[in-house]
Amino acid sequence: MSITNRQASAGPLIRIALAGNPNSGKSSLFNKLIGGNQHVGNYPGVTVEKHQGCIRTHNTVLEFTDLPGTYSLTSYSQEEVIARRFLIHDSPDVVVNVVDASNLERNLYLTVQLLEMGLNIIIALNMMDEVRSKGQVLDTSMLSRRLGCPVVETVASRGEGIDLLKEAIIEAAGNTDLPRVNYTGILGEEVNRLIPLIRDKTSYNPGFAVVKLLEDDREVASELRNTPELANVLDEVAVSMQRIERETDNSAAIVLGDKRYGFASGLVREIMVRNTEETRRNFTEIIDSIVTNRLIGLPVFALTMYLTFWITFTLGTPPMDWIDSGLVRFSDQLVRIMPDTWFRSLILDGIVAGVGGVIVFLPNIVLLFMCIAFMEDTGYMARIAFIMDKVMHRMGLHGRSFIPLMIGFGCTVPAIMATRTIRDRRGRFTTMMILPLMSCGARLPIYLMVIPAFFPKHWHTPILWSIYLLGVILAFFVAIILRKTIFKGENEPFVMELPPYRMPSLQMVMRHMWNRSWMYLRKAGTVILSFSIVLWFLLNFPQKKSYDVDTLVLEDQLVISDNTTPVGVISPITGSSAVGGQVYVKPDGSRILLTPELMERMRQVEALNYSITGRIGHFIEPAVRPMGFDWKIGTAFLGAFAAKELFVSQMGIILSLGDVSASDPPDSETSTSGSILRDALQRNYPDPLTGICIIIFALIATPCMATVVITAKEAGSGWWGLLQWSGLTVLGWLVTTLVYQVGSLLQG
Amino acid sequence: MANHTMIGIISESLEDYLETILKIIEKQRFARMKDIADERKVSMASVNSAMKRLAKEGLVEHVSRGIVILTSDGEKLAHRIVRRHEFLRDFLTSILQVSPDIAEKDACSFEHSMSPETFHRLVTFFEFITTCGMDIQKHFDEYRKHFNGTKTDQDFCDREHCRHRFGARWMHARRLTDLKPGESGIVGRIRATHRIRQRLIDMGVLPHVKVTLLRVAPLGDPLEITLRGYNLSLRKDEAAAILLYDDSHRLDENNSDSHEASSHEKKSHSAGSHSAGSHSAGSRSADSR
Predict the structure, then answer these.
(1) Theoretical Cys-Cys bridge with A525: which of A521, A720, B18, B151, CB 3.0 to 4.6 Å?
(2) What is the pTM of this model?
C-alpha cells in the first residue's frame, strides 16, 4: 500500500477535529490546546458528549472538536458512528490524529482509515515521554514521509509540543496536497475497478465508500442502497468480494484489516530506529498480577470499592452537613423576618427546600466523579469491568455497569450520572432503569422506622439485609427481562483494551470532576427545583381557611385541656366527619380533651386531607388496598416522591392523631418523635405483614423525583423518566400485592 | 413409517437376527437354524439362545426341531428393521453423496443406535427434500452437483457468486479458549458474527498474529490476552471464535505477524497482479497442513 497526494482547501476560521484511540491522551491534548474554555454538549440525537472549544492565535480562530475515542471507523459502536459522521458531514478543515507513540501499531490502524477518508491530517505523536523513558527512538520524519502528512511530537500531559502543533495546524489548513491510500494485490485491483463506478454519485469520498462496502459496512451500504443509480454497484461489490475471497482464502474485511495492520506494523519497523525489547510495561504487569489475580483479585477489588464508597459518601457527609446547616440558618433567618404566610412557606418549604434538594447531592457527585475520573484515567476502570463482567453479562450488561450499580447503594442520583461510563446505549438504559432497585441511603430512614415498629429486635438486621438482597435479586431479573424486551439487541462485544496504568494529571481529574458537577447543576438543578415547587404546591394547596377542630371546639363538642397528663386512649370511630373524617369520643361517650399540640396536629391532618396530595391519597386508596395499605400510607408514599424523608414525616402527621399519650412536645421530625411514630404505627397497624409490605413497596416503587429527573436528562427524554417511574411503581405494586395477598392467605 | 414402538425393544443383535431370518425366509419360506448360523457366521449355540429369546418375545416360533418361522409380530418388526436399514443407506448415498459401501457399513451401525425420534426426523427431512417444491429441489441439485463424493477436499462452493466458505478442516482446530495462561498460539481464522468479527479485526486479531493468553478473570470470565504489544480482554464466547493454527504449522516466531507486512512493504511501489499471485500462493501453502 502506498500514499499519494491530492487536493483540498483552507479558510479564515479553521475547524479542527481530534481523532484517536481511547487512552491515547487525546482529551489531555484537547484541554491543553484550548486552555480550559470547553463547551460540552451532545451530538444530535444521542447522549454522547460533544466537547468543543475555541482559541484565537496568530490572528486565526481555531475551533476544536474532540471526537469520541475510537479504535476504528466501522459502524458498530456509537462512538465510531459519531466520529465518522462528523468527519464526513461536518467537514473539518484539519484532522489532528492523536497517536499513542507507545502503542504505534494499533494506533496507526486508525490513521490508515482516516487517510482512506481523504482527510487533511496531522499526526500528533503523543506520549513521547513514555517512548523516551523506554529508551526507544523513533524516526518521526520518516513517518511523515511515509504517511504524506506532518507529524508533531507531543507530550500532552506536560504541554510539550502544543505550540508547534498549533502552528502545524495553521500551516496545514492551507494544504492542497492530501494523502491518499492505494492498495496492492487483488484488493487494489478491485478497489480501482469499483471507484469509477461510484465516483460523483455519492457525497462520500469514493475510495472510502468502496473500502467500506467491501468491508460490508451496514451504514454505507444502506445509504447507497437508497440511491437508485448505485443499485448495480452493490452487485459489483459482491463480485469483488467473492473474487477477493477466492484469491486470499479470507473475507474482504479480513484482507482489509490485514493490509492496514500490515502497513502499520511495517511502518513501525521502519521508523523504530532503536527498540528496546522491553516486555509490556513491567509496572502495569506487577499491579495487574495483584489486582486481577485469581485468588486475591476479588478481595483487593472489594477493598477498592469500599474505598470508593467511603470517599463518596462518608467524606461527602461533612460538606453536606455544612451546606445543610447553612440552609437551616438561612431558613431560620427568613422565619424571623418574614410573617407566617403561604408565601413564606413557598420560599422555605418550596424554594429553599428545593434548592437544598439539588445541592444535597453535590458533594457526593463531586467526590464520585473525582473517583471515577481517577479510575478511568489511570486505567483501573477497565480492570473493574474485567473483573465484574461475568456477573454483569448474566444480566445482559457490560462489566462497566458495576460501578453505577454499586454507587446506587449510596444514592441513586450520582449513580445515574455515573452510567455515562457505559458505552453501550441499551446496556446503559437498562442500568438506569434498574438502579433505583439498589436500595439507596434515603430509604434507610423508612426501614429504620418501620422495621422496629413491627418486628422484635433480633429480627431487625436479618430483615434489613433481606430487603437489600431482594433489591439486588429483583434488579438482576428485571435487567434480564428488559434486555430481552424493551432493550433487546445484540450484546455489545466486550472486546476491550486493558491500557497500561498511567498516573493522571491532577488537572485532568479536577477538570472531569468539575465538568460533570457543573453539568448536573445546570441541567438537573433547574428541573429539580421546579419540581420541588410544584410538589410543595400540591402538598399545601388548597389551603383551609378554617379548621374543623377549631369549629368543634367553639361548638363545645371538643374540649381543650390545659394540663398535659394523658387523658386516655382515643379510639377513632369512623363515621360522620368531625375532624379529618374521624370522630373522636371516649369509650364512655364523653367528649375528648385535647391538648394544644394535639389540636395543632389535627389541623395538620385536616390541611393534608384538604390538599391536592391528600385528595389524591384518598382517591387512590382502592388501588393501594390490595397491598394492604390504607389512604394514610398511600398519602405518605405520595409525599415520598419528593423526598423519601417526607414519607416518615407524613406518616408522623397522619398517625400521631391516634395516640393521645403521645403528648410530649414534638419539636421536629427527630428520632424522639421517631419512637412516637413507631408506637403510632404499631397501634394503627397491628399486622407485621403491613410492615413488610411497606418496606417492600418503599424498596421498589419510590424513586425520588430527583432520580426520575436525572434519568430523563441523561437518557435524553422525559419519557424515559416516566418509564422508570411507572415501571417501578407497577413492579412495586405487583410484588407488594403478591406478598400481601399470599401473606394474608397464609395467616388464614 | 407407522408404529415405532417395537423397535428398540429388543437388543441390537436380536434385531440383526430378525433381519437375517427375514432375508432367508424371503428365499425359502422358513429358516433353518443352521442357515442362520452360516449367514451370520456364528455358532449353533448362539443361534439357539437367540431363538429362545426371540421366541420369548413372541417374534419367532419353532415349528419343528431346527426350524423357525416368524410370527406375524416378528414379521412386522423384521420388515421395519429392514426398511430402516435401507432408508439410512439411501439417505447416505443420495442425500449426503457417501459412497455405497461406506453407506452400507454405516447404515448397519446407525440403524440400531438411532433413537426413533431422530429417525423420524431424518425421514421427514428426506421426504421434504425429495418431494417438496421446485425451489428446494433446484438448490439441492446444486448442492449435489458441487459436492459430489469425489471432491473431499473441496472447501468452497463452485457456484458463480457463492461466497460460502465451508471450513470443515477448522472443525477440530484449537481455539483461543483452549489455551492455558502463558500459552500462545497463531490466529488462523475468526469464526464469529459480523459484529464481533469486525471488532476483533479492528483490535488487531487477524490471521497469522501471535496471541498469548495472559490470565483469566477471578470469576472465570473474561480472558486477558496480549497481542501486538498490548493487552486485550474478551469474553470466553468471543475468544472461542478465534481459531488457532495447530502446532505443526511452522511459522518463524519473529515474523509471525510481520510476514504479511513485509510483503506489503515490498509491494508498496509495485504493480498489482503478479504480487497478488505470489502473495495468495504464499498464504495458501501456509494454510494447508
Answers:
(1) A521
(2) 0.71
